[in-house]
Amino acid sequence: MTKTQSSENKKVGMHAKNTVLSILATGWFALLSCIIVFPLLCGLLASFHPGKDLIRKGLSLNLDMSTMTLDNYIYLFSGNADSQKYFMWFKNSLFLTFVSVVLTLAFCYIIAYGLTMYEYPLKNFLFFLVIVTMMVPFEILMLPLYKEMITLKLIDTTAGVVLPGICGASTIFFFRQYMTGLPKELLDAGRIDGATEYGICFKIMLPITKPAFAAMSILCAMGAWNNILWPMLVYRDANKFTLPIGLNTLLTPYGNNYDVLIAGSMFGIIPVFAVFLCFQSYFIDGMTAGAVKG
Amino acid sequence: MKIKKFLYSQKVAPYVFVLPFILSFALFWIYPLCSTIMMSFQDVGPAGAEWVGLKNFSKLLKDTVFHTAIKNSMQYMLWTLVLLIPFPMAFAVLMDSRLVKAKGVWKAFLYLPALTSVVISGTLFRLMFSEYKTGQMNVIMAALGFGTFKWLKVKATGLMALLIVCCWRWTGVNMLYFLSGLKAIDGALYESAEIDGANAWQKFRYITIPLLKPTTIYVLTISVYAGLSMFMESYMLWAGPDSPNNIGLTIVGYLYKRGITKNQLGYGSAVGLVLLVMALIINIVQLVLNGTFKKEER
Q1: Which of A29, A34, A286, B268 could lock onto A215 through a cystine, CB 3.0 to 4.6 A?
Q2: For testing contact with chain B, the best of A24, A59, A163 (most B CBs within 10 A)
Q3: Which domains are seen in chain B, by residue range?
Q4: With an 8 Å Cβ cutoff, is A268 touching chain B?
Q5: Of B33, B136, B273, the CB nearest to A59
């Protein structure tokens, strides 16, 4: 065997080895994905079976096609009292999500703008305070905030749910990180053209910050849509409950509403999954922004 | 006119921009923080607050239920560090290699749990951990040749259930953190290491791990906080703040039970402060050991 032949054989061998490794690696992630999807799949299949089974038997992968019905979903959309209650929660969640996303983005944008575009003595100190707020888990402030909301008469109001989270540190942080990459010469150019400081902020800089808005709006919306702990404390009136709170009230051992619980849970995931599929890259950008520079 | 000119000046504008933060910081951070510190030295009743000195804390020292809560939270937190840092990091390195095909699909699947609310995922897992032999986890156990478990009634399996939920929810997210950290590593480093004859393990050990450090520290920091202040996962698995023999009780769960359910704001605040001090100490020690505060590193 000549030298060139042997090296060629080696190359072919390497290639085959890489193919095997590639199949193994890809297969590993396929397996992992299956494990991840499994509980959701169990839930989805269970939503086509009577809800009573869930308490009697627990949840398991039920592939029995013969007993599958759309009854739970028909019931969910029937317009009866349970169905009305469910869609009220759904509507409340949509409203709360909309309000908190709009307010959070608006405030975090101008705060980050103020923390990035100007030089002034307190600037670094204020940014330090933004970071400091991240050092205390929300759960610790939950009790005093709850008491404060009672004092301020904001308990049981959407304002009480939304206001404490409006100036979220991570959102400010993300906007600031994005804006430090923007050319500051635009500010001076705007000033020369006679724009006011606020005009520059909203008419010149805001349009070029759009990608950051996209990433953050999706992340904030997901957080608001799924949030339960704080809304559960603030809302007392059952007519104001959001979807997570409402679904949680159905999870009692004595409940007979497991039909609504399982079908409603599955239907409640749809909006988030749909948004995720459309804007996948924004999710990942927004989420991992803090991790690289720490 | 004068006011308008003042507000529109370049010196004042930045303060106008950051004003919402200052207000929110004062109202929803400093005030509640001070108020919880104050309340922890008080007995807060319907009539008003009464100063009781260190009574709440001395009571906490003897409170065996609180000790259980601390033990549970610490155990949970340490296990999440073991499970949710090395494995996601390894998965990220593998995902970053040229070997894996259809990366976008797997990333999307692994991210799905982070999209589902803790209520829905908690409900699904609560029902899967049913003690009947028809519950999914017992079906799996039966297939592996074990008997049925009363998952949510025994300490060891209860903790396991919590950790399974946690891993299910966060493995993908942590992997994405590490992936974004890997993207920031200069590929030329690997090439020159290859020229020097480094094998895959050496490249991982001497390039990837050191250069991933900022990401690792970030993930470690948030994991310590999230682990110690975990509550909703246990709330959902046991359908409320109560669990048999307090096997699922966490520090925040105890804070909730005392502060919200029993309306003992003073005692609940003391619980919260202990949690805060624990979280701060652990994280500061961790950051110092990792050399984050050393200046020359930046």
Answers
A1: A286
A2: A59
A3: 61-297 (1.10.3720.10)
A4: yes
A5: B136
Candidates B9, B15, B127; nearest CB to A59:
B127
Domain boundaries, chain A: 3-67, 79-293
Contact between B10 and A197 (Cβ < 8 Å): yes
Chain B positions touching A287 (Cβ under 8 A) are 173, 176-177
User: Exposure of B19 by Cβ count < 10 A (0-12 exposed, 13-18 middle, 19+ buried)?
Assistant: middle
Residues of chain B with C-beta less than 8 angstroms from the C-beta of A117: 14
So what's the ipTM on this one?
0.88
Question: Of the given ranges (A87-91, A137-141, A249-253, B167-171), which has the lowest mean pLDDT?
Answer: A249-253
Average pLDDT over residues B248-273: 94
* Residues B28, A164: C-beta atoms closer than 8 Å: yes
Helix B213-228 to helix B265-289 angle (10° resolution) is: 160
pLDDT tens for each residue of B174-197? 999 999 899 888 889 998 998 998
Does residue B275 contact residue B252 with C-beta atoms inside 8 Å?
Answer: yes
As assigned by CATH, the class of the A79-293 domain is mainly alpha
| Model pLDDT, residue A65 | 81
What is residue B12's three-state secondary structure?
coil
pLDDT at B64 over 90: yes
Please tell me the pTM assigned to this model. Answer: 0.90
- Residue A194 sits at the chain B interface (C-beta within 8 Å): no
- Give the closest-approach CA distance of B64 to chain A in angstroms: 21
Backbone angles phi, psi at B24, to 5 degrees: -65, -40
pLDDT in tens, B38-63: 999 999 877 778 899 999 999 999 99
Contact yes or no for A69/A75 (Cβ under 8 A): no
Angstrom distances, CA of residue A225 to CA of A89, A103, A236, A264, A273: 11, 15, 18, 14, 12
Between residues B110 and A292, which one has the greater pLDDT? B110
Q: Which residue has the tokens 């009854």?
A: A71
Per the structure block, which two tokens stand in for A238? 């059952």
pLDDT score, position B156: 93
- Residue A123's pLDDT is 92
Q: What is the pLDDT of residue B297?
A: 44
Between A and B, how many residue pairs show a Cβ–Cβ distance under 8 A?
290
In DSSP notation, chain A reads --HHHHHHHHHHHHHHHHHHHHHHHHHHHHHHHHHHHHHHHHHHHHTTS-THHHHHH-------GGG--SHHHHHHTS-SHHHHHHHHHHHHHHHHHHHHHHHHHHHHHHHHHHHHS---TTHHHHHHHHHHHTTS-HHHHHHHHHHHHHHTT-TTSHHHHHGGGTT-HHHHHHHHHHHHTS-THHHHHHHHTT--HHHIIIIIIHHHTHHHHHHHHHHHHHHHHH--HHHHHH--SGGG--HHHHHHHH--TT-S-HHHHHHHHHHHHHHHHHHHHHSHHHHHHHHHHHHHH-
Looking at the complex, report in whole angstroms how far the Cα of residue A119 sits from the nearest Cα belonging to chain B: 9
**Partner-chain residue, chosen from B117, B229, B268, that has the shortest CB–CB distance to A143:** B268
Task: Find, in chain A, the residue whose alpha carbon is nearest to that of B130.
Answer: A58
By CA distance, what is A111's nearest residue in B?
A: B18
